[in-house]
Design brief:
Elements: H1 30-34, E1 43-44, E2 48-56, E3 60-67, E4 72-79, H2 87-105, E5 115-121, E6 124-130, E7 134-136, H3 137-142, H4 148-167, E8 170-171, E9 180-183, E10 188-190, E11 197-198, H5 219-222, H6 229-245, H7 255-264, H8 276-284, H9 295-306, H10 316-319, E12 372-377, E13 383-388, E14 392-396, E15 401-405, E16 412-419, H11 436-448, E17 455-468, E18 471-482, E19 492-501, E20 506-515, H12 518-533, E21 536-537
Antiparallel strand pairs: 1-2, 2-3, 3-4, 4-6, 5-6, 7-9, 8-11, 9-10, 12-13, 13-21, 14-15, 15-16, 16-20, 17-18, 18-19, 19-20
Helix pairs in contact: 4-6, 4-9, 6-8, 8-9
């Protein structure tokens, strides 16, 4: 596999000095300071005098130069092709550079670098661009992570550049921190359209080649499918995650493992930037391109982080009437409700996860949270339960369970009913139901014995729980890694409550799946508590 469209470790910003060999900081001595870069002083195109080398990427060297006609500093990208490559590949690189110039020139946006000119020197195209004075987001992250609000501000600018590019029929295909410049006066610029794809143009990638930085590439591109604007938005999601957490959630020790993680690993919920920021990031990282939010939805979510609305005074302060309740929008759980984070009504977008209030003006019994929905399932599990209203329902009548999946893929709720009768007409196998504690111990043993597929290295704990609606209950918690994960991948957890009706020889098992640690575990435990709170067994 080749990567002729830009290396992940190659800076492409225009004001960066090239790193010293070995990756150690370069401290110039007097001899180094006096020795100019080879090529310094050369005039390109009859007007651009090369002053110093700024950096290099996968396809060229970037120079600081002086336009002697209009007397201004510019950046010039020179094709950089090893001498031993075939002439066909050399021409390919030159065509890519011309494509970069055309791609950038057709995009009119303040966050896209301006192309001034293209000159041909020694048969090679040199791209003349504005000189952006600043440093790359990658260099900034080497000093520490960004505050979520600042990360959202940078993300908004990159989103604007991508939206303008997509409207012009251009896919960037290499959105990564190295290609995001942080200039003066808080300007953010997206650079390096060297592997951009222009709508209607024939691809320049050679057979078997791969372009882009692996850890920022969308799953559909890994699978060889045709990318679209959603693929650039995936990369933006990885950039935002990296900006807040300091590392891409898919980075592994080698390219193959990284691509496997992109296809199958579920990233852990960001520990920083809870609320609207973490929610939109997780939505952008959905495997299915069609399930990702639109650019407009991403913009609204990021704007709500950059410009959070101030709390509004309670409505009853003016009217004397107390409100029926207020919002509870836990992080990530409402994967399709981006716009909710911009609402006021006494809710600050970054702090909505700390309160759980319910609305129940008329009903008898506990009320469900706002944006939750009661699901009545009398046929398969003979119970009703409440879950967030945008969870996706799945049913397996033969195995006796109903499931509700979080659209972001972070959490899941499964309720299973088991009796001592055969499961279906094709089976004569009878389930032997013991006490609640015995059933919980069976669950733990099934994981340990490898009877549950997709679970590696499980550890389980069981405990007796308080009776549930007059029936025996016990709890089991299993922590595990998914099949294919390595030691660096975050663990997952299944928290289960077993309820047994001795009189009718029937049991129910409530599973809530969640991250095993961190804020994701806290949110999962809260989800478990509330699903259990509103669970009503109908067969007693």
């Amino acid at each position: 596999m080749t990567n002729d469209g830009g290396w992940a470790s190659g800076p492409t910003s225009y004001e960066l000095q090239p790193p010293a060999p070995g990756g150690t900081p370069h401290v110039p001595t007097q001899a180094h300071a006096a020795a100019p870069d080879p090529g310094t002083g050369r005039v390109v195109g009859g007007r651009y005098r090369l002053l110093s080398r700024l950096g290099h990427g996968g396809m060229g060297t970037v120079w600081k130069a002086r336009d002697e006609v209009v007397d201004r500093d510019v950046a010039i990208k020179e094709p950089r092709v090893p001498d031993n490559v075939p002439e066909s590949m050399r021409q390919n690189v030159h065509l890519r550079m011309q494509r970069e110039a055309r791609a950038a020139a057709r995009i009119d946006h303040p966050s896209v670098v301006t192309v001034h000119d293209v000159v041909v020197e020694d048969g090679r195209p040199w791209i003349v661009m504005e000189l952006v004075r600043g440093h790359s987001l990658a260099d900034r992250l080497a000093e520490g992570t960004l505050d979520p609000r600042e990360a959202a501000r940078v993300g908004l600018a990159v989103l604007g550049a991508l939206s303008a590019a997509h409207e012009a029929g251009v896919l960037h295909r290499d959105v990564k921190p190295d290609n995001v410049l942080l200039g003066r006066n808080e300007r953010v610029v997206l650079t390096d359209f060297g592997i951009a794809q222009i709508e209607g143009e024939q691809g320049l990638t050679e057979t078997g080649a791969f372009v882009g930085s692996p850890e920022y590439v969308a799953p559909e591109r890994v699978l060889g499918q045709r990318p679209g604007p959603e693929s650039d938005l995936w990369s933006l999601g990885v950039v935002l995650y990296t900006a807040a957490e300091g590392m891409s959630p898919f980075r592994r020790s080698n390219t193959q493992a990284t691509m496997q993680a992109i296809l199958s690993a579920d990233p852990q919920l960001p520990a920083r930037g809870r609320g609207a920021f973490s929610e939109i990031v997780m939505q952008l990282l959905r495997k299915d391109p069609a399930a990702r939010p639109t650019a407009a939805e991403v913009r609204r979510a990021l704007e709500s982080v950059v410009h959070p609305q101030a709390p509004q005074p309670p409505a009853f302060a003016a009217t004397g009437a107390r409100p029926a309740g207020s919002k509870w929008v836990p992080p990530v759980l409402h994967g399709n409700r981006v716009a909710q984070w911009g609402l006021g009504g006494g809710v600050v977008a970054v702090a909505v996860a700390v309160t759980l209030l319910v609305v129940n003006p008329f009903a008898v019994g506990p009320a469900v949270p706002l944006h939750w929905k009661v699901r009545d399932e009398p046929e398969i599990v003979k119970a009703s339960l409440a879950v967030p209203e945008d969870y996706v329902k799945e049913v397996n009548a033969d195995e006796g369970w109903v499931a509700f999946r979080d659209p972001s893929g972070v959490f899941g709720v499964v309720l299973t009913r088991t009796t001592e009768e055969p499961r279906n007409k094709y089976s004569s196998e009878h389930a032997v139901i013991g006490s609640a504690e015995e059933e919980a111990q069976k669950l733990a043993a099934s994981y340990k014995d490898g009877k549950v597929s997709g679970v590696n290295d499980p550890t389980s704990e069981t405990s007796k729980a308080a009776s549930f609606q007059g029936m025996e209950a016990a709890e089991s918690v299993t922590v595990y890694r998914r099949s294919g994960d390595d030691d660096k991948d975050p663990k997952r957890a299944i928290r289960q409550r077993v309820i047994v009706n001795d009189a009718k020889n029937v049991s129910w098992k409530l599973d809530v799946r969640m991250p095993a640690a961190g804020q994701g575990r806290k949110d999962g435990d809260k989800l478990f508590t509330n699903v259990l709170k509103y669970l009503k067994i109908q067969e007693q």
